[in-house]
Amino acid sequence: MLIGIVSDSHDNLLLIDKAVQILNSQKVSLVLHAGDYVSPFTITKFKLLNCPLIGVLGNNDGDHELLKRRFSETTNCTIQGRFAQITREDFRIGLLHGDETELLNAIIESNHFDFVVHGHSHLQGIVRRGKTLAINPGELCGYLTGKPTITLLDTTRKEAITTEL
Q1: pTM for this entry
Q2: How confident is the model at residue 62 (pLDDT cuts 50, 70, 90)?
Q3: H/E/C letters for each residue in 97-142?
């Protein structure tokens, strides 16, 4: 299974459009968003994905209730609050924003998950801790690093590759 991973889109509509195009062209089966959409109007851009999107809230997401409402208006996008535990093809995936560093590290070190997806730092990184592959796709928005990125996770190979947009 090929999973698209994004985080920290921060209202950058042009780069959200570009990411959606790339993810659709790669024929991903699922997209995970690790939070910081910021404004609810960005959710309409993710409706154009050809697969489901599961997301969590980030520390910069403003109106949680309106974000949840926008998600509920789509057929392919869901939001799980601050944390999601997802099972696909017998793989356990933990999804959170990652702004609570101690919690993030405890989840990664627990070895309960095959993959832990997080964002927040805007810094791309892929690290193996025991059986867990921790994945930060970097920032979709490109605001802090100047490098907008997304990550593709191949669950069959148990590896992730980050691409600059």
Answers
A1: 0.97
A2: confident
A3: CCCCHHHHHHHHHCCCCCEEECCCCCCCEEEEECCEEEEECCCCCC
